[in-house]
Amino acid sequence: MRPDHPIGARRAVVGDIGLYIILTVSAIPFVLPMIWMIASSLKPESEMFAFPPSFLGSSVRWQNYVEVFTNFPYFHQYFNSTYVAALTVIGTAIVSTMSGFAFARIKFPFRNTLLVLMLTGLFLPIETEIVPLFQIMNLLGLTGTHIPLIIEPVFGAPSVVGTFIMRQAFLDLPAELEDAGRIDGLGWMGILWHIGVPLAWPSIATVSLLTFLSSWNMYLQPLVFTGGTSERWTVPLGLDQFVDFMGRPYWTLQMAATTLAVLPFVILFIWLQRQITEGIATSGLK
Fold first, then answer.
1. CB of 115 closer than 8 Å to CB of 167
2. Who has the most CB within 10 Å: 20, 148, 217, 277?
3. Rounded Cα distance, 39 and 200, in Å
4. Any idea what DSSP says for residue 110?
5. pLDDT digits (tens, 9 = 90+) for 37-82
6. What 3-state DSSP class applies to 243?
7. Contact in structure between 54 and 40 (CB atoms under 8 Å)
8. How far apart, in whole angstroms, are the C-alpha atoms of residue 171 and residue 80?
9. What are the residues facing 243 on neighbouring strands?
10. What is the pLDDT of residues 167-216, one digit of tens each?
11. How far is CA 53 from CA 38, 43, 174, 256, 259, in A?
């Protein structure tokens, strides 16, 4: 006869089961809209608001995804968002890593004051800054291009957040490693590149993902800076174009386009989730 489990082990199993049930129920409000969006993107348009509602329509219509690209310039907009986000991530990661290292390891006058001033700028919403930013970009002849969509985040709020995250990561850099680098003849840039960056890679991944999300979701900046040509739009602006000549939305095409819009972020998060967890933990963000 099989012996009974110890009471402590039994309670642990029951506790784990209860925890999984709570987490599963808590995840439903977040997962259900995603599932409904994907299912709706594969329905015929006539069944979008059928009653009683159902996840699956009478047929699976993959043609919705084809029409997103053939009937609208969504490919151009998707490409625009992709390369703008990629360049923004690279630029922000470089600026944030270098400035975060400087604030954490290099002693210079008023460094804490400058950091506080930078963080204070985060309280200003983009709506209060968009007019002077447009005037500056227009004076430089950059309106009607994607360059402002790259410059503004690299030297704006995403880099400030990234600088704070990287500073917290570099504060935990052991002084012994820095001293060892100096003995080997490394300067500040050498210490950053050969010692700091490898140890802070999880935080860099966190900054990169947050920057990608911020750049990919930008709406006001592309609307102001890129002009009225739909081929220069990015994905958030492109999601507004799936309407007929009377302004009525093609709901299934909007769901298909939105599904494609969230796909890169989901892939990146799955790919970098371990580094993101480590980066948040080591950066002191609770």
1. yes
2. 148
3. 40
4. T
5. 998 899 888 888 877 777 777 788 899 999 999 999 999 999 999 9
6. strand
7. no
8. 37
9. 249
10. 988 988 888 888 888 888 888 889 888 888 988 888 898 899 899 999 99
11. 15, 12, 59, 18, 20
Structure tokens at 184: 């080997």
Structure letter (DSSP) for residue 58: S
- Contact at 8 Å (CB) between 209 and 276? yes
Q: How much is the pTM?
A: 0.84
CA distances from 32 to 7, 40, 42, 248, 260 (A): 37, 12, 16, 25, 17
By residue count, the chain amounts to: 286
Helices 147-154 and 74-105: crossing angle in degrees, nearest 10, is: 20
Six-digit token string for 109: 């006058």
User: Would you say 241 and 232 are in contact if contact means Cβ atoms under 8 Å apart?
Assistant: no
Nearest to 208 by CA among 78, 80, 95: 95
Residue among 182, 172, 152, 169 nearest 99 (CA): 169
Comparing C-alpha atoms, which of 277, 242, 186, 204 is closest to residue 74? 242
Give the position of tokens 């129920």.
25
The DSSP H or E segment spanning 74 is helix 74-105
Among residues 145, 157, 150, the alpha carbon closest in space to that of 120 is found at: 157
